[in-house]
């Protein structure tokens, strides 16, 4: 006996985007591309699959992402370990090095698309999600850090989003982190009794991450821990102040959060997050910072870099709270018809209309006028064109305005000679 076929569903934490919702995504993507263009960013596309070692090396062995969130598998053909990208930055840097992109100039580049992390799904946290990833490669000063933050502020403005706040921090340079690390480990050793399993495990491997705990029993210990910010030398402080001054110039408000560490190990100096109270537990819409060591770490000629990524599912959710969705019309003109001859004329007319930039749906197959009009209405087309019967034989079509707002200045239905139809409709759409 054959086994019953169990119902197929999408993988947990991976979402379908159906036509209505997808229209919203397309709208957002178009807006985002214009916004990026306004700052001179150019698109780059990199593979979804990369060698696992790119991420273990780039993101860091002792991070949540690398330790437990990557979709990795062995290529059965050659035994190589491959990973579905859990973020863009490492791949963008790999590609920049591989194609020698930085040999004579700095690069402003972006990438947009799906990334994969095996996290526990909940609102705003998915296993396949999408990022807008923006990277400035080869630029060193606080001016570019600030420009990147200010450009995100502009995006909020473009989308009509107001309830986001900016937190920034400086992670200094490697030697400053090393000095702080020593002091921090001493602090953790003194409070070993309050550390949970994760804390004990990371105490020596990634002590900074121990402070990023959500465990209430560890809060007092984390609050009293030595702050990395207090270990910053003059150069790091000057860089930080340079960023702040430029944010002040632009009128972009921020708060210093000395506990912010970010979930990836490649950062130094400036790090920042945009956070909102409107998305429940997954409150960070955008995160990024400077990663001056990554290009060299991945085998490139040393070059500074800074970037950020925005979570698109979170952004769409947030945007919808400020600007409610309006499902766009499926087409401008919906053609209904009766009879074989009319159907064929409809197809020709539709092509002529599309030549002029009008979008058209021709009702497929045969159906009663009533059901065709129901479908035309549902499409939200502005205009229905009716091809049928004696009218058609006489060389005319009926044109019906379907939208309420058109009724004021248009008679609801009128006859138009077929020869004039394209010009007539072009005027109306
Ligand atoms: P990230 O903070 O790991 O940074 O991710 C950036 C954003 O992606 C988050 O702020 C959040 O909005 C979104 N996000 C993260 N995980 C999920 C998830 N499971 N479901 C839905 N959205 C999520 C990076 O990925 C860095 N590569 C950013 C960067 C670029 N730094 C420098 N350049």
Automatic annotation (TrEMBL):
Transmembrane segments: none
Broad enzyme group: ligase
GO biological process assignments: histidyl-tRNA aminoacylation
Signal peptide limits: none
Record SUPFAM superfamilies: Class II aaRS ABD-related, Class II aaRS and biotin synthetases
Positions of L-histidine binding: 87-89, 117, 131, 135, 262, 266-267
Subcellular localization: Cytoplasm
Predominant location category: cytoplasm
Enzymatic reactions: tRNA(His) + L-histidine + ATP = L-histidyl-tRNA(His) + AMP + diphosphate + H(+)
UniProtKB keywords: Aminoacyl-tRNA synthetase, ATP-binding, Cytoplasm, Ligase, Nucleotide-binding, Protein biosynthesis
Documented EC number(s): 6.1.1.21
Cited NCBIfam families: hisS
HAMAP family referenced in this protein's UniProt entry, alphabetically: His_tRNA_synth
Subunit architecture: Homodimer.
Protein name per its UniProtKB record: Histidine--tRNA ligase
Native species: Sheuella amnicola
């Amino acid at each position: 006996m054959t086994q019953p076929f169990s119902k197929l569903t999408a993988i947990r934490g991976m979402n379908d985007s159906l036509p209505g919702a997808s229209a919203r995504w397309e709208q957002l993507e178009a807006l985002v591309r214009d916004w990026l263009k306004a700052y001179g960013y150019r698109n780059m596309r990199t593979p979804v699959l990369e060698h696992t070692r790119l991420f273990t090396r780039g993101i860091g062995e002792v991070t949540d992402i690398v330790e437990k969130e990557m979709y990795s598998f062995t290529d059965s053909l050659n035994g190589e370990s491959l990973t579905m990208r859990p973020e863009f930055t490492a791949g963008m840097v790999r590609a920049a090095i591989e194609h020698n992109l930085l040999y004579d100039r700095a690069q402003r580049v972006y990438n947009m698309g799906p990334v994969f992390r095996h996290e526990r799904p909940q609102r705003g946290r998915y296993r396949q999600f999408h990022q807008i990833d923006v990277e400035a490669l080869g630029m060193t000063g606080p001016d570019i850090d600030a420009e990147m933050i200010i450009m995100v502020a502009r995006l909020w403005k473009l989308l009509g989003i107001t309830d986001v706040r900016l937190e920034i921090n400086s992670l200094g340079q490697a030697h400053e982190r090393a000095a702080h690390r020593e002091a921090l480990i001493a602090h953790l050793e003194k409070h070993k009794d309050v550390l949970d399993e994760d804390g004990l495990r990371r105490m020596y491997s990634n002590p900074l991450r121990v402070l990023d705990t959500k465990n209430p029993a560890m809060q007092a210990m984390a609050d009293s821990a030595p702050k990395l910010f207090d270990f910053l030398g003059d150069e790091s402080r000057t860089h930080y102040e340079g960023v702040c001054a430029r944010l002040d110039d632009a009128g972009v408000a921020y708060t210093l959060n000395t506990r912010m560490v970010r979930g990836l190990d490649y950062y130094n100096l400036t790090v920042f997050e945009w956070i909102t109270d409107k998305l429940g537990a997954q409150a960070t819409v955008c995160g990024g910072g400077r990663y001056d060591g990554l290009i060299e770490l991945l085998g490139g000629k040393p070059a500074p870099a800074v970037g950020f990524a925005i979570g698109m599912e979170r952004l769409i959710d947030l945007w919808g709270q400020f600007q409610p969705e309006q499902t766009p019309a499926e087409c401008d003109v919906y053609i209904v018809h009766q009879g074989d001859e009319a159907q064929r004329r409809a197809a020709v007319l539709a092509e002529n209309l599309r030549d002029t930039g009008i979008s058209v749906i021709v009702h497929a197959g045969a159906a009663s006028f009533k059901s065709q009009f129901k479908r035309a209405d549902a499409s939200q087309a502005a205009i229905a064109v009716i091809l049928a019967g004696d009218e058609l034989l006489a060389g005319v079509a009926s044109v019906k305005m379907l939208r309420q707002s058109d009724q004021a200045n248009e008679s609801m239905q009128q006859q138009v000679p077929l020869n004039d139809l394209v010009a007539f409709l072009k005027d109306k759409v």
